[in-house]
Write a structure and sequence with these properties.
It is built from 7 helices and 15 strands. With 348 residues, it is an alpha/beta fold. The chain folds into 2 domains: 193 residues, 3-Layer(bba) Sandwich (FAD/NAD(P)-binding domain), CATH 3.50.50; 103 residues, FAD/NAD(P)-binding domain, CATH 3.50.50. The chain starts with a strand and ends with a helix. Bound molecules: flavin-adenine dinucleotide. The site of flavin-adenine dinucleotide (FAD) has 35 residues, from helix 1 and helix 7.
């Protein structure tokens, strides 16, 4: 079995950016991706999410941004990615699910389709495959339906059913905007929602990213960049606002019962559906044998959390992780990771 100079896991924005730059630097590599088709996590997003609804998808390196029109994001972005992979001849192999990465002198990448050997690794596995649902007493006793963002089937599914949306992020805001005009909704958040009233300037964006960098530098599990940028209402959410959908019920419910939830003050709320818009965790379980995690549960990255190299093992780059978990951040991280792979291979 030959040993590659590098191997990228994941063909989303982060993995394609890394592959593009590795190729430009002449570094032999493959990209292994668990999906059947191009598009990273975008191919799994709900049908009602159009390119106009998303906050702005950055262009891949050396291309142009996808147009902000009424097309479905789960079709438009995958088409862009497919064309990009073809145009740049990126060496993506799919579907290949990586199960574990281990090794001493060389890295052994074990998958459902055999084992690859590599000198360096760029991990670009995103978060979509690790939806997070918090534990509340009684969660399993609920007789209604529970869904997570990954399962969101579009608003019609909820018509006429009293729906509790849980979570204080952008997804919750979008779900409430779509559901409030057609059904009875309630919103539960752990903390008061943080609304952004100022312009979203590049400085404000950099400040949000810096917050996540500090966590990663300390080896803490990263928060999502979107969660620290603050929430905004768009014109399509105006009707929901008028209907009072954004008056979050605080503090959070304390338990779940068969037909609803029990609030902290002891009062009961009947609900038919709980929609958990409670985010994701980084999909990094396959890296466990490398022992990269700190006791605090995160992976410490170099340059005070601004870099892409795992402090515990300089052969490993993490892109789309923590501060680079946005399309623009993933682009930059891909370029940086490719340069650092080259530096490592040269023994610098
Ligand atoms: C609803 C929603 C809307 C968003 N809107 C925006 C926006 O408007 N602008 C923006 O900048 N960001 C947005 N984001 C965030 C943005 O989508 C992500 O930061 C970015 O697309 C992630 O790219 P990625 O390459 O890191 O991950 P992904 O796109 O998730 O790609 C990861 C790839 O790795 C593969 N993979 C995972 N595990 C394995 C494994 N073990 N073996 C092999 N392959 C594996 C997956 O199959 C997948 O193809 C949004 C996120 C959500 C949830």
């Amino acid at each position: 079995m030959t040993t590659l100079d590098s191997l990228v896991i994941g063909a989303g924005q982060a993995g394609l950016s890394a592959s593009y730059h590795l190729r430009r630097l002449g570094i032999g590599h493959v990209v292994l991706d668990a999906n059947d088709a191009p598009g990273g996590a975008w191919q799994h997003r709900w049908d009602a999410l159009t390119m106009r609804d998303v906050h702005g998808v950055a262009e891949l390196p050396g291309s142009v941004p996808p147009p902000r029109d009424g097309r479905r994001a789960n079709a438009a972005v995958p088409e862009e990615f497919a064309a990009y992979e073809r145009e740049h001849g990126l060496p993506v192999i799919r579907p290949v699910a990586v199960r574990s990465v281990s090794g001493d002198d060389e890295l052994l990448v074990e998958t459902d389709r055999g084992t690859w050997r590599t000198r360096t690794l760029v991990n670009a596995t995103g978060t979509w495959t690790r939806p997070f649902v918090p534990v509340y007493p009684g969660r399993d006793a609920f007789r209604g339906e529970q869904l997570h963002t990954v399962d969101y089937p579009g608003p019609e599914h909820f018509r006429g059913r009293r729906t509790l949306v849980v979570g204080g992020g952008a997804s919750a805001v979008q779900f409430l905007g779509a559901l409030a005009p057609i059904t009875d909704v309630l919103w539960a958040t752990r903390r008061p929602p943080v609304w952004r009233t100022d312009e979203f300037t590049p400085e404000a964006g950099a400040a949000s990213v810096a917050l996540v960098e500090r966590r990663v530098a300390a080896g803490l599990p990263p928060e999502s960049v979107v969660s620290v940028t603050g929430l905004v209402l768009r014109p399509q959410e105006e009707e929901a606002r008028r209907l009072g959908a954004y008056d979050a019920r605080l503090p959070m419910f304390r338990s779940i019962e068969a037909d609803g939830v029990r609030w902290a003050d002891g009062s009961f709320e009947r609900v038919d559906v709980i929609l958990w818009a409670t985010g994701f965790r980084p999909a990094i379980g396959h890296l466990a044998p490398l022992g990269l995690r700190t006791a605090a549960g995160g992976i410490m990255l170099d340059r005070d959390g601004r870099g892409t190299t795992a402090v515990a093992d300089p052969r490993i780059q993490l892109v789309g992780y923590g501060p680079s978990a946005s399309t623009i951040g993933a682009n930059r991280a891909g370029r940086q990771a490719a340069r650092l792979v080259r530096r490592f291979l040269r023994g610098e």
